[in-house]
Here is the input.
Amino acid sequence: MSEKSEISVEAYRQRSRRSLLTGGAAALAGLFGWRWVQTQPETNNIPGVLRSGHEFNESVWSKLFREDHQARTFDRDAASILRLNGRLGLRSEIDLDNWQLTVKGPDGAELGRHVLDDIKRLPYHEMTIEHKCIEGWAQITNWGGARFSDFMALYENQLPDNISDVYLETPDGRYYVSVDIQTMRHKQTLLAYDNLGEPIDELHGAPLRLATPLKYGIKQLKRIGEIQFLTEPGGDYWGERGYDWYAGL
Amino acid sequence: MHWINFPLIVIMVWSGLRIYWAEDVYAFGILDWEWFKFFPESFYESLDLNRRLARGLAFHFNFAWLFTINGLAFVIYTWRTGEWRELAPNRRSLRGSLDVLLHDLRIRKEEPPKRGRYNEAQRLTYSLVILLGALAILSGFAIFKPTQVFPLTWILGGYTSARIIHFTVTIAFMLFFVVHVLQVARAGWRNFTSMVTGYELVDIEPPESAETTASTEETADV
Here is the structure.
């Protein structure tokens, strides 16, 4: 049987008192800690300490990130067109025939411009992956296009070695994201122009969008107008509104 | 660690529900028949759970570490002190738990025996809750980083399945909590203070003389 120790009523009362005091003090400390978290000055719309927590998570998971860790892929038959979840940056008219992609360096200087055929000349890759929304839903879809790493290779000799992030924005500048370079260089990160074998439709990001199963949908910018290579994280629409900058999967 | 766990679980469930609000699709039913959908809108509104996804995520992904660390500390402590022996169920526990259940529901009169500190139903339930906590953490990581910890996500049947497991675990936690609190309330104040102090006040037979009580004070018998 288990060990049992007995103590006198007097010792018990002393113990209770001590427990009550430490318990009470701990509960108070907990309450104050809780209040402290809630009333911290906010960094991009969440209490600063929670933002630091996101950054801690980022430092852990970006170190655990492995290029050969690929997101699961599926049979093409399982894929369908994604549900529409937001038209930020897509509200203005777009003239697909005259669309151009602008590329900038860290200092903001323009490095080049592209039409869609430039992207189509890069090696074609297709993937059927599970798209994940930060709201919680997931759906299998299929993307076709060029690897971002192949696109970036066009600029390799014009860029400094310390590129850490890539900033993308819609032509109207209303929606923008910043994605770490590890993810951008990953094999499954595409500049996509096909969706289930057809050109991507307007509300899913025509003519060119970012597609990667390594980030939530909030990072997969539709209708790319500008790409800028950066040496530190850039602006991020949802990051500035309380979400995690990293948002990696 | 039990008492640190309580506010942590509350925070995890609260922030988790703020996340769940953004895509509250789970319902209880079989095939096409839906019995009920989890949580009416009024539930979210009354607890300020709606339209708080970003904050929900921020709290959830930060406090998850504390929950994990506390859980590990609890397991290590229980193992090192040998207290797991008080908790571990055995072959008789299932049968014994049924006896306890029948007794507690007032269907059967005779009180089933305790084995050490806990009765069989407690052993089974408390052990299951620890496993549940582990499952909550594992399925949580499987959802959090499905590509980086892909073997884990795979074991749990994929992303969607891991998410359902994570949600179910939460519901199970809430059910456990309700029964746990009811049982503690039923067991009375002295039992409750014993959860805090580690000692339970017991009335013993009136002592024959003052000497005998004094002599039992410091003894520890096996």
Residues 209-222 of chain B have pLDDT under 50 and may be disordered. Chain B has ten helices and five strands. The two ends of chain B are 26 Å apart (CA to CA).
